[in-house]
Amino acid sequence: MLTKSKVILITGASSGIGLSTAQYLASKGHRVFGASRSQPENVTFEWVCMDVTSEESVKSAVQQILAQTSQIDVLINNAGLGLAGPLEETTDELVNTVFNTNVLGVLRVCRSVIPIFRKQRHGFILNISSIASGMGLPFRGIYTASKAALETMTESLSMELKEFNIQVCSVLPGDISTNINSHRLVANLREDSVYAAKFSKVHRQINDEVSHAAQPIIIARAIEKIIHTPKPRLHYTVGPIVQRATVWLRIILPQRFFEFLLMRFYGM
Ligand SMILES: NC(=O)c1ccc[n+]([C@@H]2O[C@H](COP(=O)([O-])OP(=O)(O)OC[C@H]3O[C@@H](n4cnc5c(N)ncnc54)[C@H](OP(=O)(O)O)[C@@H]3O)[C@@H](O)[C@H]2O)c1
């Protein structure tokens, strides 16, 4: 239930989870600034151009928002990029692009918004991570590493910002049906790659899972509840029970048994 209208900045608002969340939050009466590189059409929120990989672009977008409103209450760091491929054949360039977006991108936006939050003496940062952050998935080693980094960064930020009345948490979605499949970077395999057969099978499975997954509105609804929670938890998993359960299974099962189950799941 909406208790108070908030000014919200959400990154990655041109597609998928970000687009759905921006539209949903706007429909609930919040003033939403949705940021991305490409401009979405026919949306009910205010769009700002922002490339999270550019400090200048982030600063200019935040200035643009501040020129229109005197405050920002909530920052949702959602912009993100997938990457699939065997680690051995993943180039530095791909790794840099993913970390520059999924980890440094979040840091850049935080660096621009935290001073505003500190001045206001309140703020809420919600990072969109992934259930996959808690485990290395085959052929998604860099993506899962970037989300694991985001998870620990969330925990550090939470402690550092507590004294300024800034709350920090992360949402870990399971598979959600978005455009992440078509936007995902894919490593170029060598012609004689020893991974070709297994990778192509697992890659197909990853794409299928996302195509048949839940709609992004489930994340939007969860986020709306979280931003109204007076004392939010540090991490929220959202998605099918089986996927949420893997977070606990990873902790309680013997490590090699968990690995065996994952490999069985991916037919490896
Ligand atoms: N879908 C899933 O199954 C799933 C599961 C767990 C976690 N997630 C996470 O959820 C978040 C959203 O993903 P999605 O599934 O909604 O994917 P998506 O449909 O591909 O949307 C990704 C969004 O990120 C934006 N983006 C990418 N690079 C950017 C950059 N350099 N600067 C600004 N914006 C950028 C894109 O906008 P532009 O290209 O227009 O800039 C787009 O709006 C990601 O962090 C993803 O890792 C997704």
TrEMBL record:
PANTHER family associated with the record: SHORT CHAIN DEHYDROGENASE (PTHR43976), SHORT-CHAIN DEHYDROGENASE_REDUCTASE FAMILY PROTEIN (PTHR43976:SF16)
Family classification: Belongs to the short-chain dehydrogenases/reductases (SDR) family.
Stored CDD domains: 17beta-HSD-like_SDR_c
Sorted UniProt keywords: Oxidoreductase
Keyword Oxidoreductase: yes
Domain Ketoreductase: 6-169
InterPro entries, sorted: KR_dom, NAD(P)-bd_dom_sf, Sc_DH/Rdtase_CS, SDR_fam, SDR_oxidoreductase
Organism, scientific name: Arundinibacter roseus
Protein name: SDR family oxidoreductase
Superkingdom to which the source organism belongs: Bacteria
Keyword Aminoacyl-tRNA synthetase: no
GO molecular function, one term: oxidoreductase activity
Pfam families per UniProt: adh_short
